[in-house]
Amino acid sequence: MSLVFDGAQDHLATIPIVINTWPFTTATEQAFNAISKMNSVLDAIEEGCNVCEIMQCDFTVGYGGSPDTSGETTLDA
Fold it and tell me: In the record, which residues are listed under signal peptide (predicted)?
């Protein structure tokens, strides 16, 4: 991913950007939609995480997913 701008840094903060380190594009799209509607960044992150918890992305996220270090399933959203 790259970002190019014309040096107008004051406008850079108004461009919604969502970065996901995993290939769960549905979660990224949901977070982007949320932040584009002027929701808070925290709400956008929560909505993105929630998508993967419901869809059980990669079968490691959400109910029945991989346990954390204490042996429990941890839900992030």
Answer: none
